[in-house]
C-alpha cells in the first residue's frame, strides 16, 4: 500500500471515531436529560401544596422540588454518564488504533517473510562464495561459479521485488513455464543440497505454462525443496517432478525423510509451525505457510499428498495459463 492509501485509511478511521464519539455522547446526554426531566416532573409539587403539576394546571402556578428527592437521581445519572462515556471512549480508542494494528501486523509479517525468503538464497550465496575461494586457491577456473553467483544475486533481487509488490497489494500478473521454473529452483539449492549430502533429482517436466509469475513459482518450488532437504538424511535424494492435468499443473516434491507426525499435520501450513528438528539449519516455520499463501493468491493450493516413515510428498497445484 502507498503512503496516500495509508493516509486515506487513517482519515476514514478518524472520521468514524469522531462520528462514534459525537453520536454516542449526544445519545447519552439526551437520555440523561430526558430521565432528569421526568424525575423533576414526577417529584415537583405546587408551591404551598402537595400535588404534582398536571398539563391542566393553573397558569402562573409555581412548582418546587425537594432537593433530597432529586439529588440521588442527579448523582446516579452523573455516574452513569461517566460510565457510558468511558465505554464509548474505550471503543473509540480501539477503533482508532485498528489501522495502526493492521499496519504493524503487515510490517511484522513482511519482515519475517523477507527474512525467511532471503535466508535460503543468502545461504546458497555463501556456499558458492566458498566454492569460488576453494577453486581460486587451487588455481582452477572460477567463471562458472561466478556466473552462478550472479544468478543467485538476481534471484534475491527478484524475490525481494515480488515480496514488495505483494506487501503493497499490487496485482502482478504473469505466467511461467514449468520446465524453466523448476530447474531454476533446483539450481538455487544445488549447493545447499551438496553440503547436506542430499542429491536433487528432476523428474518429468511437461512443456506447459501456469498463470503465476515465474519468480513466484521459483519461490514456491525453492521453499518446498528447502523443506525437503532439511528433512532428508544424508545420502538420500529429493525428487521434484510435474504433471499437467486438464486445468492445473501439479508439481510434486518427494523426500525420503521420516515423515510428518500425525499431530503436526493439521498445522503444517500454519505460520511459525515447526515439526521435529532434523539437526540441520533451524527453520522458522514460515516456508510452507508462504507457499500456501502464494498458491492461494493465484487460485492454486498446496497439500501433503502422502506421508509415512518412507518419506513425504507435497503436491503444489497451480492453474494452467489459458
From TrEMBL:
Protein name per Swiss-Prot or TrEMBL: histidine kinase
Q: Per the record, GO CC terms? A: plasma membrane
EC annotation from Swiss-Prot or TrEMBL: 2.7.13.3
- The regions listed as transmembrane in this protein's record are 20-41, 70-93
Domain Histidine kinase: residue ranges = 113-322
The terms under GO molecular function for this entry are:
phosphorelay sensor kinase activity
Cross-referenced SMART domains: HATPase_c, HisKA
Q: Which UniProt keywords apply?
A: Kinase, Membrane, Phosphoprotein, Transferase, Transmembrane, Transmembrane helix, Two-component regulatory system
- Which Pfam families does the protein's record reference? HATPase_c, HisKA
Lineage, top-rank taxon, reads Bacteria
Q: Which PANTHER family match?
A: SENSOR HISTIDINE KINASE TRCS (PTHR45436:SF5), SENSOR HISTIDINE KINASE YKOH (PTHR45436)
Q: What is the lineage of its organism?
A: Bacteria, Bacillati, Actinomycetota, Actinomycetes, Micrococcales
Amino acid at each position: 500500500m502507498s503512503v496516500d492509501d495509508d493516509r486515506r485509511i487513517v482519515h476514514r478511521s478518524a472520521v468514524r471515531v469522531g462520528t462514534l464519539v459525537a453520536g454516542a455522547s449526544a445519545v447519552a446526554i439526551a437520555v440523561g436529560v430526558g430521565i432528569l426531566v421526568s424525575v423533576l416532573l414526577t417529584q415537583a409539587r405546587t408551591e404551598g401544596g402537595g400535588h404534582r403539576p398536571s398539563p391542566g394546571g393553573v397558569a402562573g402556578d409555581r412548582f418546587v422540588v425537594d432537593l433530597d428527592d432529586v439529588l440521588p437521581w442527579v448523582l446516579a445519572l452523573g455516574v452513569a454518564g461517566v460510565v457510558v462515556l468511558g465505554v464509548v471512549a474505550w471503543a473509540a480508542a480501539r477503533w482508532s488504533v485498528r489501522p495502526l494494528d493492521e499496519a504493524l501486523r503487515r510490517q511484522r509479517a513482511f519482515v519475517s517473510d523477507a527474512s525467511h525468503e532471503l535466508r535460503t538464497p543468502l545461504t546458497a550465496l555463501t556456499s558458492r562464495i566458498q566454492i569460488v575461494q576453494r577453486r581460486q586457491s587451487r588455481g582452477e577456473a572460477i567463471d562458472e561459479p561466478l556466473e552462478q553467483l550472479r544468478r543467485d544475486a538476481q534471484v534475491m533481487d527478484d524475490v525481494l521485488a515480488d515480496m514488495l509488490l505483494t506487501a503493497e497489494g499490487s496485482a502482478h500478473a504473469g505466467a511461467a513455464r514449468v520446465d524453466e521454473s523448476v530447474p531454476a529452483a533446483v539450481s538455487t539449492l544445488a549447493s545447499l543440497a551438496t553440503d547436506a549430502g542430499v542429491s536433487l533429482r528432476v523428474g518429468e517436466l511437461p512443456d506447459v505454462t501456469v498463470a503465476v509469475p515465474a519468480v513466484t513459482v521459483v519461490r514456491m518450488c525453492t521453499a518446498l525443496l528447502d523443506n525437503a532437504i532439511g528433512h532428508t538424511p544424508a545420502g538420500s535424494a529429493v525428487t521434484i517432478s510435474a504433471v499437467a492435468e486438464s486445468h492445473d499443473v501439479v508439481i510434486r516434491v518427494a523426500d525420503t525423510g521420516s515423515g510428518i507426525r500425525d499431530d503436526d499435520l493439521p498445522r503444517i501450513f500454519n505460520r511459525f509451525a515447526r515439526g521435529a528438528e532434523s539437526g540441520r539449519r533451524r527453520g522458522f516455520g514460515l516456508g510452507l505457510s508462504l507457499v500456501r499463501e502464494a498458491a492461494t493468491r493465484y487460485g492454486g493450493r498446496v497439500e501433503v499428498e502422502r506421508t509415512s516413515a518412507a518419506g513425504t510428498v507435497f503436491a503444489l497445484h497451480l492453474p494452467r495459463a489459458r
